[in-house]
Amino acid sequence: MDQLGQPYQTIRWHVDPEQSVDTLSRNKDIHEAARMLREGKLVAFPTETVYGLGADAASQEAVSAIYTAKGRPSDNPLIIHIGEKEQLYTLAAEVPPAGEVLMRRFWPGPLTLILPHRGTLAPKVTAGLDTVGVRMPSHPVSLALLRVSGAPVAAPSANRSGKPSPTDADHVWHDLQGRIHGLVDGGPTGVGVESTVVDVTGEVPLLLRPGGITWEELQEAVGEVQVDPAIVQEGTAPRSPGMKYRHYAPQGEMWVVVGEGAAQIRRVQALADEARRQGKKVGIFSTEEHRAYYQADWVLPCGSRQDPASIARELYRGLRRFDQLGADTIVAEGFPPEGLFHSVMNRLSKAAEGRVVQA
Fold this sequence. Notes:
The protein folds into two domains: 11-232, DHBP synthase, CATH 3.90.870.10; 253-358, Threonylcarbamoyl-AMP synthase, C-terminal domain (Rossmann fold, 3-Layer(aba) Sandwich), CATH 3.40.50.11030.
């Protein structure tokens, strides 16, 4: 909305995500979107994880507009996106050796590094912290846009705060049309969950948010990586963007059942049956392997247990689909907290507001 409370006329550009970064960097729509960013306007764009809502990270007014458009609490910091590694050194006061190793291994890609900043960013970006999260996405559309804009871009997920993150341009359009100036439509995203966030300011790197890069991959790169207690312990104050408030949540009440095989199937069905007896419309979020065993108003697939990446890709899409269908209760299968399933379970637990039960 503008200063008078009137909706913006949101422009939607369609670009081909199969083109190279060099080709996209000459695309007239990318240049128009980059011009808007330089002018302090809000532009949503695809990354390899989810769609981001971008604004000039040096402009306090532009960054403030992100919080307004999303309805995001002002004490929740933003992640900075850059198109060239060299930009990092204009933002960070220092990059510890572990950070350099992780950059070489995983950038461009779904990894955010927490680093001490130089104070050159809009104060609202960091929410008063002396550190900032920075990442270099690998999606060709976002890389082209960032390089053409020539400036660091603050970009949280392009959804209304608390809702499932957007993995398709239509999700952004549904949530933010009229609240932002532009949307670069580059099709569905690939990873489906947000970036991994690692604090490298201490002696040992600290995993603050699991995401597209797994804890195991981080340890393979730099050795020991500790895990923030807030990831596994309810009530502990988190230190990462996207972890402090109710997040990723569908409109219906959600339950997650962890376990294996027949026991998990029985508990999922029992919870669904109980909700239906109460007159609720019930959806079950099932893996392909178990889908035929369930009965509910809707049984939606979330991917295959043999392919964790497929479940990550379908997670937010499925939660949004249950909203469209009008599900009052959603019962989802859970997974062991390892590899990419660790990231999936983190998001499921947040979406269920901690309603996670053992089969």
